[in-house]
Amino acid sequence: MHKFLISVSAAVIIILGFIAILFFIKPDYNKLNFVQRFVARQVSQKFDDLLNKMPKDRRTIVDFDTLMNSLNFYEKDFAQRIFEIDPKQLGFKGPFYSIDKPKDLIEVPSVKVGYRETGIQFCPEHSYKDYLKMMNQMQKDIGKRLYIDSGYRSPGRQAYLFFHYLTSSAKYSLMENAKWIAMPGYSQHGSPINNAIDFCNEDGINGFSDGQKQSDFENLPENKWMLQNASKFNFYLSYPKDNQWGVAYEPWHWHWEIKSQQ
Ligand SMILES: [Zn+2]
Fold first, then answer.
1. Which of 39, 95, 140, 202 has its CA 20 to 30 A from that of 77?
2. What is the pTM assigned to this prediction?
């Protein structure tokens, strides 16, 4: 009986400790503590499970609420508190774009690039039309094209990516993660008007996947053409080197924008 009481009290203390650490200790933005890391992994796993049940081509437009509703109460509370952090506190200086879904999303078929597929992507109609015009010109000029590696992403997709990278390459540092992955609503990929596209070339070179370096994309003739001509088609490089937004250099990431004539 005595032993039983001891183990019950030990269990109660552990559970209370878990709750106290999770609910009352504010996350350290540079490193989550062990309880927060544990819950972050659970959140990421639940998001993964939900996405794996969805048809592949719908995963980039997964609904934010559907994703959050796959969590239990303490996972959801934790994830919500993470998404309520002002990204400025994590070093991200970009604006809030939108969490509204564009009304005119075009489904872009998957393309084989090198040994992989881009997967079905989505783009608002206005930027897709300009993308096609731009590629026709590039084809005429240098006989090459770029492909849409990642187009429109819903705030839900952004939430999934945030936890995926937080628990993997960012090693549980919210600060580090924010350099690479925008919070839901803060990604240009989710902007209905000024939406961003990540490009890759016909060999699948995009400058970031499979251990590639930024310079792998930067040095492509396709990219050099973009730097000279993309603005004629309303596409602009969003995150040049040492940009003012606190985002890593992303030569592959271009957004659509109508700039007023100077
Ligand atoms: Zn991007």
1. 95
2. 0.81
| Ligand 1 centroid – CA 50 distance (Å) | 23
Question: Closest Cα to residue 116, out of 43, 200, 59?
Answer: 200
Give the whole-angstrom CA distance, residue 32 versus residue 34. Answer: 7
Tokens in use for 90? 């994590």
Residue environment code for 28-47, b if the CB has 16+ CB neighbours within 10 A, otherwise e: ebeebeebbbebbebbbebb
Q: In which element (H, E) is residue 124 found?
A: strand 121-124
Cα separation values, 32 from 39, 42, 86, 122, 169, Å: 10, 14, 17, 34, 14
**Could you tell me which residues come within 8 angstroms of residue 15 by beta carbon, excluding any fewer than 6 positions away?**
none
Residue 158 CA to ligand 1 center (angstroms) comes to 11
Pairwise CA distance, residues 239 & 218, whole Å: 12
From CA 197, how far away is CA 27, in angstroms rounded?
A: 32
Asked which of 20-29, 58-67, 97-106, 191-200 is least confident by mean pLDDT, the reply is 20-29
End-to-end distance of the chain based on CA atoms, in angstroms? 83
Say whether pLDDT at 172 is over 80.
yes
The answer on pLDDT for 262 being more than 60 is no
Distance between Cα 142 and ligand 1 center (Å): 24
Distance in Å, CA 66 to ligand 1 centroid:
23
Structural domains present in the chain: 28-262 (3.30.1380.10)
User: 260: Cβ–Cβ under 8 A, 6 or more apart, which residues?
Assistant: none
